[in-house]
């Protein structure tokens, strides 16, 4: 595939004030002992419900907008297949729109409904399995991030818990009715059933980054006074009902992963939980609904999530829920992804901090984004201890990478 890569959807900000943070160690070479340790720790298999993942490396979901008509073509098959063949244990696809007209905002983002779309995805799953990897689609509804008149269904209105966009006090979209809620819940369940039917290994529900499910979780966009709004636990009801519907639709051993975040696409400082107690109250009903693993999205995996503990968000999630977790956030690089929108590169950084956390079981899998875009063979090199072959991230070069 050749074209302009987009590492996040169009409404992610071009810049935002960063938190004070401890930078990952910046190195130009990794000692032999560190490379050997990385190979040993990352090569171990792990399980999520009935799925055995051959190693601890996951590919993070990254929007690419290379599927005209929402149909993944042979270039998309090749894109994912190459990374599986080069050692990625679990691929989480780019976000794919569920079958609800208001779910998206582009006709080039793949959809996970429709005969042609699902036929394309079946080929992707086949290629990943041929390469020795496993794969789950990320099921997505963008909610109030959508602007009126945008494709793929231009007549569909923007919808959300209260019709509010990030930072708004007055609605610019439609507050969802019970029928709307039921329709979207059904759309997630139908896409999950399709994923199992065409050969995928599980599904991931996108509940992060200020999109629809997250709009319900966050008080900034959820002002409802019914059973879906109010206190933090009530705000989890929509997410929990999606999970429960998906769980009921697929086989008992078919993994259901839930991705969530504190930050939003337009506000890096936003938080759904200020302390571990609040986070536990939010995650417990979602986990109980049938989640097999959580994908805790952060911009820098090495940041402690709360005071008085070094645990990151994935670490706290595992501690509070007992579920396996996936960590993510600038793995293998020394700069967070927001800089990528400004055309800034990022140097290769040590994995020692990551490996320390993995060794003490703070989390179970490590999702890699930009590093895998820069180099489809990143996992192969890391698993073989060939750190000297890793390249720094260069956003400009992605126009010629696939």
Automatic annotation (TrEMBL):
Q: Which residues form the NADH:flavin oxidoreductase/NADH oxidase N-terminal domain?
A: 44-388
Q: Which InterPro entries match?
A: Aldolase_TIM, NADH_flavin_oxidoreductase, OxRdtase_FMN_N
Chain intervals for the UniProt region annotation (Disordered): 1-33
Keyword line: Flavoprotein, Oxidoreductase
Point out the coiled-coil segments of this chain. Answer: none
**What Gene3D superfamilies does the database record attribute to this sequence?**
Aldolase class I
The source's superkingdom equals Bacteria
Q: What is this protein called?
A: NADH:flavin oxidoreductase
Q: Which organism is it from?
A: Streptomyces olivaceus
